[in-house]
Amino acid sequence: MPRSPQRSLVPGLLLASLALAAAPPVLAADAGAPISLTVDASDAPRKILHARMAIPAGPGAVTLVYPKWIPGEHGPTGPIAELAGIKMTAAGRPVAWQRDPVDMYALHAEVPAGASSLDVAVDYLLPAVPEGFTSGASASAQLVVVSWNEILLYPQGRPADDVTFAATLRLPPGWKYGTALPVARASGETIEFKPASLVTLIDSPVIAGAHFRTLPLNPGKSPSHVIDMAADSEAALAIAPEHAAAYARLVDEAYALFGARHYQGYHFLLALSDHVAHFGLEHHESSDNRVPERTLLDDAPRRKHADLLSHEFVHSWNGKYRRPAGLATPDYQVPMKSDLLWVYEGLTQYLGYVLAARSGLSTVEDSRAELARVAAYLDVRPGRTWRPLADTAVAAQILYDAPDAWASWRRRVDFYDESTLIWLEADVIIRGQSNGRKSLDDFCRRFHGAPGGPAGVKTYTFDDVVRTLNEVEPYDWKTFFVTRLTSTAPHAPLGGIENGGWRLAYGEAQSDHLKAIEQADGEIDLTYSLGLTVKEKVSALGLTLEEDGTLKDVLPGKPAAEAGAGPGMRIVAVNGRRWSKDVLHEAIAAARTSSEPLELILENSEFFKTCRINYHEGEKYPRLERDPSRPDLLTEILKPIAPKVPAAAKGTKPAS
Ligand SMILES: [Zn+2]
Q: How close is the Cα of 282 to the center of ligand 1, in Å?
């Protein structure tokens, strides 16, 4: 469906746009004429995309830029190093270009007299590394996700909303595709899109593949919601009817939560492959979700990724429509300020978690186990004693890719999970203070809801969040957030769990949810016993190669660290026997009744050492325990709120 070219801009953003518009003109003859962009993805299985652009331009100096700050990635992650084969011509003659010596993302050229257009050819070298976000692996032999920002240049100095692209995409023979980008016409493997602003283009990636299926979630209804899935096999597309029905309920539960929509149709793009990077990236009318090939078939990856699509879907409201002012930049070169990511990502993490439970993508039991997992790891992270949560948001651009080693001391992008605890606490406070008449749902309707309509951006500040919360339920919300954001206390904020009727507790039994996460991650989590996490298997490109045993992280102050273990060391033997997952678990259990230390032989860059760990308390795993002295608000929060419609009347026949 076409998107309105009009975007609502708040004054701050408008001023920034005007400032850019007032910059010296760099293109004389172009005005609003669209840039034509033809991307040939027929070589995607060989990990290369080819593109040609015709950029309307009069004679004179021109600077073209490559998108640097990528929305949703909150950092300067545009993969400029992968741009190759850059050739420029005008009126059929070669045009020399020079890279700016300071800004690697800017290319300068001179359009000769008599020319009215600068023609640019570029290739994008699709990375094979299955890590990172969109700049990670995006193609396999069977599928590709085309992120337009990776395969285009645009004239410097104009707001991205004012630059129009007319894009055409060519796919490998027989491949099918899905995207939120409005299509003008398609014939065979060539798709011609309607002219769209640069913002809409970059906001609308295309998924395509040899094994492809579109799953309608609300057939016959408007706006339409679909899952466009591409997989490395036909078998991987076979979503079970009950899971398809849960995704259909996600659409209803999100609408019931927010009370309005800010899109004209929504596409969940779902790549199922072990050969692409695994993550989710939000867009206004779609989301780019990439998971292992068997996620729809196998229990462990399905449970691990249960709230991925719900998280990305929430972003259409929280992140795309309502956006922190510092993240609403006029183009892709202006640096972003990410201090409010505890709202943008943190509230999304909480709502994605809640909606997964309300729609049945996650069971209530799994949801409780997940909350215990999150609360427990944050509660023992020693890094919280020096780095306040606020700094994890401000420093997001350097923390997303931070290594696993010493993660507990460095902290990572904790503004996701820790904000789940904080927003849960806010929800519980509203429910408690209002005697159950109000909840955070009321905040969402007020902040993210009506009036609905086509995609637009409405920015906000910290004060807007506080003011809206006060309109819902008066409380000292400013102090509430400032305290939690600036705290360097040694423990996590558990008020939401505790006042929600539950307690964080530890026991020897590991919940099925935690087992599923461990299995999906290929990791052994001994955080609460020895104080370390172990890579179970060496894997590359999705293939398991051998038993690993590398210590992913070691928690300062815990028994393993006290005994001299460090991240990156590899377990060779446990109590004199060659290591395996079972041998390690059995040794921890046996140490309960032994006075001898648990002995690990560790390899550290070709050298071996023996670590004697004095730990005798057995396995420990987190769980939530009911506190009968308080009302069970957590269970209340996780209950569905969408009106129940009889299946026959609803007409959603999932998964055919
Ligand atoms: Zn997110």
A: 7
